[in-house]
Amino acid sequence: MNRHLLSINDLSAADAIEILNTANELSKISDGPMRKLPTLRGRTVVNLFFEDSTRTRISFESAAKRLSADVINFSAKGSSVSKGESLKDTAQTLQAMGADAVVIRHGASGAAQRLADSGWISASVINAGDGTHEHPTQALLDAYTIRSKFPQYSENFAGLKVAIVGDILHSRVARSNVLLLTKLGAKVTLVAPPTLIPVGVQDWQVGVSYDLDAVVKDVDVLMMLRVQSERMKDSFFPSEREYSRGYGLDSARLHALQEHAIVMHPGPMNRGLEISAESADSHRSVVLAQVSNGVLVRMAVLYQLLGGAALTGEVGA
Amino acid sequence: MDFNIHRWYLCPAREARKSFNDPSREAAKEKKLATVLDAGEIGRALKRIAHEIIEHNHGLDNVVLLGIPTRGAFLGERIGKFLAEIQSPVPVGTLDITLHRDDLRMRPPRPLLPTVIPIGGIEGKDVVLVDDVLYSGRTIRAALDALGEIGRPRTVQLAVLVDRGHRQLPIRADYVGKNIPTSASESVRVLLDEIDGSDSVQILSGDSK
Question: Which residue, A63, A237, B166, B204, has most beta carbons within 10 Å?
Answer without folding.
Answer: A63
